[in-house]
Every structure is written in structure tokens, then in C-alpha cells.
Design goal:
The protein is mainly α. It is 77% helix and 0% strand. Helix 1 (2-16) packs parallel to helix 5 and helix 13 runs antiparallel to helix 14 (276-300). The chain crosses the membrane at residues 6-21, 28-49, 61-84, 105-127, 139-156, 168-187, 207-228, 235-257, 277-301.
Length: 302
Amino acid sequence: MLTGALLILAPLFLGFAIALSNRQLMTVIHYSVEALVYFILALLGLGLGQMDGLLGQLGTMAAQVAGLVLVLLVANMAGLWLFHRWQPMHTEAAETGSRPGYGRLFLAGLKPLLSVLVGALLGYFLFPDLPMVDDVATWALMLLLFLIGLQLRNAGLSLRKLLMNRQGLGIALALVVSSLVAGLALVPVLDIPWHQSLALASGFGWYSLSGIVIGDALGPAWGGVAFLNDVLREIIALALIPLVIHARPAMAIGYGGATAMDFTLPVIRSSGGLACVPVAIASGFLLSFLSPVLMGVFLSLG
């Protein structure tokens, strides 16, 4: 298991070690990442559709997802609230002229669910015995992590400056610690070993990563639970950010997890102002690195 975890992590760090300057190549990488995400999610759904007794397990999976989402939400909000009390942060007035289309963002947040649903229907009705789905998904994930490593390295972000952003670093650490506390609290609820529960709690909103990594280690049912937990985090964050960012900016930025540097960033900027942007990027960047590392470490303990 440790070797498998290292194989998953290696492409991310390999990509981060390579500096690129060709803008056209970076554009190709951007669209390749987007296509790979939906391809991987469809493969996750395909694996779910091929699972024996899928319909009989849907109720159990729904309860597990509900438990994960609820306990993580409460723990994350508590941890981020405590950080806000210790290191309060101030926001600017909302940018009334540049609000993103919230309806469009919510629809975009539903696209991953649609990808998994299409894959599950194909696996259940058309390809119940299609071989090598797990192997293809693993290799696709490794390619995705390599490309994301390239994106992170060549996004014009200084790792030193990101690590020195005290608010962003503190928000990321508050989310990590509170998520791990929630993971331990969920052990009797999920009825799995502590290290597996901690791995489930370490997705931080990166659903395309957590669904495949957890599914590869614990089976397609748990992969589906991990995916749904993290995609629901993203959707809840879209609704939560405008409501709380002025009173508790750390809670609004932090709950988005790894998505704070990409998907939820436009909402953070329009609701909290430009001052929130570097904090959100720093927090999301650090969580994007920590998520595969922590999942790999915890799963390697099994």
C-alpha cells in the first residue's frame, strides 16, 4: 500500500519540479486537466455501476455521506471560527459590478455529479464486466496529478510567499486539524479503521482525487462516498461564502478547501474583495498539496 501511495504522489511533485514558459502549452495543459477530471469521474461512476449489489448499498452510502458532510461541516466551522478569533481578518466591500453568475456556478458544481451518474449508468447497464477500469483510472489520475503539478509550478505563484501568508497558512492548518479531529470522531459512525476514516476526511474538496484514491484502496462504494462528500463541500461552499465572508472570512475561505484557489475563488473575490484573494490562493494551494500527501500516508497504514 505504501508503494501505491508513493506512486500516486510522485507525479504531483515531478510536475511541480518542471518550469514551463510556453503559454500555448499551458493552455493545452489547462484543457487537458479539465477533460481528464471528467474522464476520471466517469470511470469512478463506471466502477460504481459494476459493483455487485449496488442498489442495495445506496441507502448505506447515503447515510455515510450525510455523516461525513455533517461532522466535517461542524468541525471545520468550529476550527475556522477559533482561528478567526485568534487571527481576525478584515474584508472589503463586495464588488457589486463583477458578481459571478451564482446559478451558473451551481450548475458547474453539478457537472461532476452528472459525470459520475453517466459512468454509473454505463457500468450498470452496458459494461458490467468491462476489465481494467481501476488500472485505467489510476493511470489517468497519475497523469492528472502530473499536469496539476505543472499548473501549480507555472501559475506565477511563489511557494515562499504562499507559505509566508500567515492567514492562508493558518486557515489551511485549521481546516486540516479540524478535519482530522472529525475523521477520528467518525470512526464509530463509519465503522472503519481510524486511518481509513482519516483518509476520507483528507479530501478537502478535491473530489476527482479522493474518489479514485479512496476507491482504489477501499473499493468503489467508499470511492463514491469520498467523491460525494467532497463535491457537496464545494456546493455548500458556494452558498456559504456570500453569507459569512464579511463576519467570518476565515470560515468562508477555509470551508472551500482546495477549491479556494480555483472554483470558489470568483465567489470569494466578489463577496469579500481583493484582499481575500491572496489568502484564498495560499490556503487552496497548500490544501491541494496536503490532500494527496495525507491520503497517501493514511492509506499506507492499512
